[in-house]
Amino acid sequence: MNPQIFHPFVLPFVIGMAFVLTYCVVGLLRVIGQLPKDDRKKFWRSLVTPKTAWANVRDLFGDCLFHVKIWKRNPILGYMHTAIAFGWFMIIVIGHVMLFTLKPLEGIEAQGVERMLPNFYYPIFYKFFATETPVFAILMDFFLLMIISGILIAVVKKIHSKIVGVKRVTKFGFADNMIRFALWTIFPFRLIAEKTNIMAFWWIYSIDLCVFMFMLPFTRYMHIPTEALFILLRHAGLKPREPRKGYALAQLYSCPSCGLCIDACPMSVNDSNSGNTSAYFMKKLRNGDKEEAQRIAETCMQCGKCVAVCPVSIESCDIKMSQREAVPYQIHSDHSYLDGYTCTDTSNVSDKKACVLYFAGCMTQLTPKIMRAMKQIMEAAGEKYEFLDKDGGICCGRPMLLSGKRAEAQAMMAKNTELIKASGATKLVLSCPICYKVFKEEYHLEGVEILHHTQYIDALLKQGKLKVGKNDVNYVYHDPCELGRAFGVYDEPREVLENVGHLRKAKSEKELSICCGGSLGSFNLTQKERDEITENSVADLMFNQPDEIVTACPLCLKTFARKSPVAVKDLAEVVAGQLQ
Amino acid sequence: MKENILIIGGGAAGMEAAAQLQQMGMNPIIVEKSEALGGHVAQWDRLFPAFHPAKDVVDAMLDRVKDVKTYLNTEVTDIQRTGGGFHAVLSNGETLDAKAVVLATGFDVFKAERKQEYGYGIYNNVMTSVELEKFFRTGKDERINNPKRIGFVHCVGARDVKVCNTYCSKVCCATALKQACEIKEVFPEAEVYTFYMDLRMFGPGYEDLYLKTQKDFDVKCVRGRVCEVSEDMDGKLVIKAEDTLFGKPLRMTLDVLVLMCSMEKDKSIDAIQQKLGVGNNSDGFMQNKDMYLGMNDTAQDGVFVAGACTAPKSLPDTIGEARSVAVQVYNYINKV
Which residue of A has its CA nearest to B162? Predict the structure, then answer.
């Protein structure tokens, strides 16, 4: 053992490391402390529940080290991330193993840098790449090569992102750019230091690490430690409640600002709108720019595509919603009219449990063709049904929720719940995905099966209650955001369409489907901006020259009808037209 | 030799321009895609504001163009600029050369099916203003069966961002009130309602028509839009609207609902328009040079516009423009 305690060149590294560790521990305690009590309980329980514990282990490796989700979206970027993250991880692991096998250290013929270091610093400053043990030499060289190739891709991406398949990248400020440079140079500096064994390079290497670790908490690289915590919290099944506290805070720090959501966002079709995407929202909110964060939260259409493509699974839409709820503004709502509504008369239906309750919702009231088609379908199938809102019903509450007015929404939801329960029906069929989402997520209707009409029609066909003929029309199906991405209802409508005609593919389908542009979610998109989104979405649907566009949302239907070169129909209309 | 002037469109604008050009010593040639001259106005029974028979006006205009060379059931399929003018190919295979072209292609009626919430094509008793006019002309329409209550909806497909038409269609306010009076004449016992955003009674005698509608015909004008139409068990229409003057929503059962459909540019001319290099304005109508001194001119020398192809226009507006385009063409030919 070398009598020397340590050489001063290790100090920058040690200070940086101590700083970042302290920051992380304090941050961890802060996030957990900010969780509401019941959420915290859920969190602790999830850690010991075998199912979630296994998911935690799987995702900690799969997501943090390999980033499987980036591989799926873009293999080049997937490799880039894996090369740097996994490569670095392996160098640390193998380095430790190597030193362990070389014990006792006293036996090493210490020379150069090693002679100046006690045990503690060996794993960081030992000359890994100059080792003479063949197995380790090969492994270490391999992972070093991997890291450097990853950095090369990163450099190419920085210079010309289109080469790696990315149109728009996040624009960074000084700190983010500087730490990126620090990261890129860590390994080249180390290699030079080892090969030359000149003290100055070891100093540079140590300082580089120090810069990286000191800047880490204030930049996007904070996602490295935070993502692990976020994975655990996510598997506990939490929901963000306040935009900058607890679970949401963990998400803000987990966002790596990679910008994959920028190209994905339907608003980016107009370049000037790409600043309204989730990557920027997370940045602004994290940096405490509440005004900008609020503006972006209100511009967002809540289509959920950024969440679908996010490699970290950041729930940016939910955080935006909590941001909307956090801003109190006065509206004067008068809910006295709610008392005037009485229960749907189901007295003529003897077996109330067999009765299907149909709720058209405001949007479907404006598209009477869908209502008429649903009537025809239910009659053809011999179903007993009643309309919940034949003479005009109460709103499902979603528009109020989208405006961040939870209390107002709850007044309507309570009345609707009362009416539905009083009817005694066990099946509730909805034509509007906007209603469907709120009925599924916010209502407590135990004992009532909630179905969108696509699912209902699909079931009727499968049960043989409905007979349809097949025509020669080529359909393309548009996935409404609140049915597809929100609930994964992708197959039912497609299976129904294959029964009545031929299905053609859109360019972007299922979870990548592009919002129609009519979304209720956005408060401040102009009609022109919405039109651009609609045109882009229609062009995407027309990719394989279908004869008709079919969707399953009255709002998508109305929005597309304004811009589509071919007929736009609801799935129910198509089926009603093919009844036998 | 007289100079040939090609006039595309044989409605009010085309006929009047042709009549004037002929008097000025030129040789106008009308190419009309339908089987008769007269355009939309020939489908009309009476004209606002004074209930003047449309036939009188159309017959007078027809009489003035009886010597004008006219192609019916014919469209211009191709057109090219030649050294001294234009060379056009017609759908009947003939070709003709002209010194100047006048686009007088007019408008198309907004397809009411596009406002699904009003139920046209879904519920039997929803009809368009054009169909009601036909009823006045012929006295026949299955939907009109001694109605007790009739409603008119203004601005269908106009001033409506949701159908991409933000402009005012100009003639529907006065037409609605005219038709409201007329239906009241046929069915004096019926209640008649009109649902409007603003009543734009801008022309001479229009305001008198508005007062007459209320005083003499007891038509009830409700300021507010109809938002939804549905059908009850008996096939009657149930509408939901808002009376914005009372600040209250209202529901009403109607026997017939009439939709005052707006004007849109007739898009069947798009290909020829493109070949001539004439663009569209933000409302989708043809772009003229400017709305004051250049209202009949386009960005292209020798290509002129008249009538409702540049914006919704009333019949007097159109006739005025047809006459002014004749002067512009004359000046162009004689290099004034």
Answer: A562
